[in-house]
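Postdoc handover notes: sequence design on the structure in folder B. Input tokens:
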């Protein structure tokens, strides 16, 4: 459960065996409660409970006998809250955190964070909201272009060592772990070390960030395909020709650093200079901004843009512009109608 009441200094009894109850204990301690423990139901009576007990947090650990004890607590006027048991210790979950807002975390992602003992997180994940989602130890391993606070191999080593020490480890990444997130490498590292690992897919920024700017990556009779490209390194001439010949929509992730080479290469490969193009910066984050130009002018138009950004190349950009124009016209009509009615 997410604790939303003030428990500072209040006595809370957490029931359940130590393995099952470890995360509930940590959550209540993090909320400021004075936590008392009972690992087995036995023949406990209400009289044996701590004085001024505010709440009993009942962890579902599968032991028989707890129901009778909880009934006695309720009859004595002590509230009982049911808590889920912690999962088996010693595994890794790679979690896709989406484009950076907690609103787009999946239910499975929230559950994995709740059950974590340690979270290794990236800067593009919704890390600001982690204290509300988990009481786990939080470790920043985020990487910036040209500056890797913790190397990829060290991240994998930290994950594996923590899991082998008996922790439930969450590796929280922006977007989806398998879309330019090096998730495959991290899974391989866990498998090689004999650590159980699973992947929770996330909402990829390749689709969600254009959507945040009103740009559909596909649109009937406009584009029936889209290609997702990493913008970290310049493409080859062969790749430029391949992309230019595919048609549809091209989506480039983290492509500000290679934008000039991309636009030049696509034009040289035969893509027309007036192909519409958008740069969406900081999708779903404060300061989100969209710059729209065409392939021939985007390099100068986006001169002040910076990562994190998603580039969108294709006629779907015009669809977004048309929708915005219609929305603006409708708003103008609404304001005109309101003024006429008011008069």
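Designed sequence:
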């Amino acid at each position: 459960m997410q604790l939303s009441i003030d428990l500072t200094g209040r006595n809370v009894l957490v029931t359940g065996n130590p393995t099952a109850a470890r995360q509930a204990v940590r959550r209540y301690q993090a909320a400021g409660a004075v936590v008392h423990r009972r690992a087995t139901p036995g023949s406990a009576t209400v009289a044996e409970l701590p004085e001024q007990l505010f709440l009993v947090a009942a962890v579902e650990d599968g032991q028989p006998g707890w129901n009778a004890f909880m009934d006695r607590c309720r009859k004595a006027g002590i509230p009982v809250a049911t808590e889920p048991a912690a999962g088996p210790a010693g595994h890794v979950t790679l979690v896709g955190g989406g484009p950076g807002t907690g609103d787009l975390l999946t239910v499975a992602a929230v559950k994995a964070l709740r059950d974590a003992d340690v979270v290794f997180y990236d800067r593009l994940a919704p890390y600001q909201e982690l204290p509300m989602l988990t009481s786990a130890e939080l470790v920043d391993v985020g990487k910036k272009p040209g500056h890797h606070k913790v190397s990829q191999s060290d991240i994998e080593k930290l994950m594996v060592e923590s899991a082998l020490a008996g922790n439930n480890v969450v590796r929280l990444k922006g977007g989806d772990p398998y879309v330019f997130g090096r998730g495959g490498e991290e899974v391989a590292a866990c498998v090689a070390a004999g650590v159980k690992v699973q992947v929770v897919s996330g909402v990829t920024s390749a689709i969600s960030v254009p959507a945040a700017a009103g740009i559909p990556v596909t649109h009937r009779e406009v584009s029936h395909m889209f290609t997702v490209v990493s913008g970290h390194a310049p493409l080859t001439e062969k790749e430029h020709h391949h992309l230019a010949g595919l048609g549809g929509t091209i989506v480039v992730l983290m492509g500000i650093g290679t934008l000039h080479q991309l636009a030049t290469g696509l034009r040289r490969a035969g893509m027309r200079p007036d192909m519409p193009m958008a740069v969406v910066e900081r999708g779903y984050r404060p300061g989100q901004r969209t710059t729209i130009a065409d392939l021939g002018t985007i390099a100068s138009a986006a001169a002040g843009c910076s990562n994190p950004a998603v580039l969108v190349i294709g006629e779907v950009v015009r669809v977004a512009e048309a929708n915005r124009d219609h929305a603006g016209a409708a708003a103008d009509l609404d304001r005109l109608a309101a003024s006429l009615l008011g008069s």
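Context for whoever picks this up: Confidence is low (pLDDT under 50) at residues 327-333. Don't rerun without checking with the PI first.
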